[in-house]
Amino acid sequence: MTTKVAVIGATGKMGQLVSQIVRASDEFELVAEVDSKGELSEMLGADIAVDVTLPAVSQGVVEFAVAHGINVLVGTSGWSGERITELERRITGTLAVGVIIVPNFSVGSVLATSFATMAARFFDSIEIVEAHSASKVDSPSGTAVRTAELIGSARSSLGPVTAPHVDQRARGQQVASVPIHSLRMQGVVAKQDVVFGGNGEVLTVSHETLAPSAYEAGILIALRAVRTARGVLVGLDKLIDLTPDASPVPPVRPGSSAPPAPAS
Fold this sequence. Notes:
Layout: E1 3-8, H1 13-24, E2 28-34, E3 48-51, H2 55-67, E4 71-74, H3 81-91, E5 98-101, H4 107-119, E6 125-133, H5 142-154, E7 173-175, E8 178-185, E9 190-198, E10 201-209, H6 216-226, E11 231-234
Parallel strand pairs: 1-2, 1-3, 3-4, 4-5, 5-11, 6-8
Antiparallel strand pairs: 6-9, 7-8, 9-10
């Protein structure tokens, strides 16, 4: 039995990619493609909804889906820690619904963020430089915000990072005390550098997306997980096992019959 999927924001680049993946898989059935200004009622009848709209639209999409008992996979930027906490409060105790928020569907990006979080305890000077295409309407990116928040959490017992002159506009926007610098340029898909400064050394954890195909495996993992999700989960890292001794998992491709990733 296939899972019925509604894609909201289907006319955008990410929406088109999600729709393509759903069509190619024998596990899912695409029952609605709605643009960011479309009627949300078009998602009714779907088992899950995928929100890849705009930051100003996303919250309304999620609220509508949750109110109608539809699990949601969110791939839209703009979900700050405060907004996520508000969503968690709203659906606490609502066991029949789940929301998975994924700032970045690239497995490589998730690994880079995990590595950066590990390094955060060993350096006091940390900054993020992220770049996306000129068409990206929000900054900093959801990936950069998520990375900074995880770095701040990893350093909770150490205090804020060392970031001098943050009163100057050119020093970037601080998230969890980490300065983030955003580039919006032609010719760029997505790139993030987390730069750590230490005594006599600099460590850079870098990830670059070269083509949208980098998101395919992560989208399919998240689609499989959101079918049975309950409550709010944030990040692709919650859906894959990042422990060093975990069993190797072959790449997941659209149309494959690999088992769903764990949602814990």
